[in-house]
Amino acid sequence: MPLSNPSSAPFSNPSLAPISGPLSFLTNPSSQLPSSNPLASISNPSINPSSAPLVNPLSSWLSNPSLVPLVNPLSSSFTNPSLAPFINPLSSSSNPSLWPSSGPLSSLSNPISLSSGPLAPISSIPSISSNPLAWSTISSNAPSIPIASVAGPAMVSKFSGSGNKKASRPSYVVKGYDFKNTKGDFEFRNLVTFGDSLSDTGSAGRGAIYMADGNPMSFYNSYMSIYLTGKMNAPRSQGGTNYAVSGALVKWASSLLQLLGDPLALMRSKMSQQIDQYYADNQGKANAKDVFVLWGGGNDMTGDMMQAAMPWNWSKVLTGTQGYLDNKPRVLASYAGQLARHGAENVFVMGLPDPGLAPFSGSAIVGATVGSMGMFMGGTPLEFLDPGSWVLGAMDSYLRDKSHLVGSPVNNADEYMIDNYARMYHHFLPLIPTSLWRYAIIIPAQLQRNLVNSWNKDLQNTLKDQEGNVIYADIYGLWQEVQNDPFSYGFTNTLVGQCTLGKESTNCDKGDSYYHGDDGEVYMYTDWHHPSPQMNQIIAEYLLSIFNAPGYISSLARTEELNENVRHNFVNNHLKFARFDQREVGEANTFADILGGLDKDSRSLNPRNLSTYGIGLGTTYRAAPGLDLGAALAFTFGDKHPSNQLKYRHNSQSLSLFAQYKDESGLWGNIEGHVSREQMDDIRRSMQFLHKVRTEQGSTKGTVSGGSVTLGYDIPMPSLSEQYCLEWYAAPYISYTYNKYKVDGYTEEGNRSTSMQFKDQSRKSKLASVGVQLSSQSPNLDTNMDIAYVKDIDSEDFATEGRLKHFARGWHRSSRGIGKERKGWLSITPSVEYRVKKNVVIYGNINYNYGNSKTTQLNTAFGIKGSFK
Questions:
Q1: Predicted confidence (pLDDT) per residue in 787-821, tens digit
Q2: 746-768 pLDDT, tens per residue?
Q3: What is the DSSP string of 572-608?
Q4: Gene3D superfamilies in the record, alphabetically (predicted)?
Q5: Which of 51, 258, 374, 462 could share a disulfide with 388, CB 3.0–4.6 Å?
């Protein structure tokens, strides 16, 4: 019979491909059973976790954040991939100098947030306190700080028993927040979570928090909420928007077999009830400014074990390639569509993680029998009578002793777990061969995986047809990637958790003999089936990275816009001086320019300065009195590194055709059209997950096309000094410019949980300008000062749609959500021409566009031209 997480979550595989390796034979019953690991008796200390070079920077920050520095909890989603640690934000709220200077949490000290504007000021960042002796970040001189303070006795955990000594431990309570409105300049109002113990940050106090030492800030949704909203994801019971309840089900048990498999089903919270409660709290609507997370299914799978054992379901359980046992995954997917119909604009739906390598799977032989007693007796006066605790404690001690371990999990996580657990069982029961112990581990683990694969297959297939902007998260793929390369992420132990095997993290706190969170190890699990704080951090970083990826990729079109501004400045500069050129009919000019552009927009998704450079070539021809015709080519190129998350090579080639006419009265007008071809090569999208920097690569092409029309009138002005200046003119004008930016969709080269495919981008820009040009004419020197206000009169966001490569449904994200784009600006352009010889002129200009102190752009053109007939 396949085993499942008894509290909340077997773990899943959105990729749905049958797993390979020592567990793969159950997807093909005709294949041979695996043999023993040939490396079973070989120890490799060079790759043993105990010798991993990483020091645990996170081992105890959640048990005492005021004392332990940590890596930025959100450092990988949108931060510098450098690994420099920074001080725990929960330990330095009273000292702004200690806050991070870069990364998504850097905005706690920097008024500009990469995601959505300024985060909360230091004085409004929450503190958490569980009792007067517990850690706190409250500053004595900052009375306005909202406090997560002591509450009354917490409700008893469903697994802790009525005599649980932790039942009266004060829970965490959040005060001082407005959960109804958007905070400051953040894009979103709240993160709203529906689910089970993987997401519950304290619905019933400490007894509901499945995290060693019970800190609610350790969960992925807490990290995400701070990043997206500037608020904690507090439970609804404390006035927050986390509706998740430990032990919750996706759907009521619908058969007697399911009730037999999970007798507590009728007592459990249902996700539908959680969603209905949210509607009741929000006048029956889903607020478009909220981001929603749906993560459930583990407890449902627990109740389905009896049903899975029936002969008519064996083919599904043994292969994992058919649909799930019933419609529960489809019901979960339908919740996303329901939220969208009620107004939700961004809904995360998360697959279940991989159960096959969790400590519970390795210890399931004991855990599902005598070990299960510990979940109910732990922390009670009867704890000393619990035989499961004795057995699991001995197993735990063996697996924590690195001298007993063999092999390495790197690219071999299945074999590493199976071999070490089998050797552990053989150590205590040597009469049973290790090879048989391997089968006892492999079979239930793979059966769980097969069920999870079926769940996720149905979930994905149903999500494809749902309404709304649904973001599917490949949690299984992420899980396997971490398990197969744990050291590079920063983990030193994947075989056991922060709590002794069999001990639930709801009853596992610092000071308990079965708490190991401060032993110097970095654990992937907090107990035998729930992720640790560090793994929760990785989950948050992963979710944010895929959510914002389309927004970052939309910046490719912004680079096209910079290239277009450089080209426009280059052509427009020649049109300005051509009006006063005394060439004869049939005479032509040729010109060559060195071009440059610099775009600074610290409130956009590109916090770094964006620059481009190139060359321009062109000619103008005097076709009739006052009429000039011309053409120009511009070539721009260079490496672009607009942010820490994105870099690429961008080359473009443009062709411009233009005409200008000026009559004897001074009335003038010009028109131009252009088209360019763009190439974006070696696009590198980076993200940091805990300690590991991951990069996805790709390439694409694009085009820019458009034109402009300008009308003005040259008004002669009195000369200030006839000795140096023969003529002055003031020329008021109006102008309209239309551009269409296109970037072809592309698929990233990798095949990981973060590998994505992006759709075509198309953006239109319509600019209206009103300005005046002040020109002077002298024998050898001509000048022009152009001052204008430019307004984007029908602005379209830089936006695109992306999806995971193996999931057919995509979601859209605009740069507006990640930053602020300028809508209007002041343009100032001084230009000068100097005649070196009668037919040779050198010239230059600087175009300065000022939106505000955080959005500026600088374009330059310097060159030489000659006349011939």
A1: 999 999 987 777 889 999 989 889 988 776 555 66
A2: 999 999 999 999 999 998 999 99
A3: HHHHHHHTT--PPTT-EEEEEEEEEEEEEETTSS--S
A4: Autotransporter beta-domain, SGNH hydrolase
A5: 374
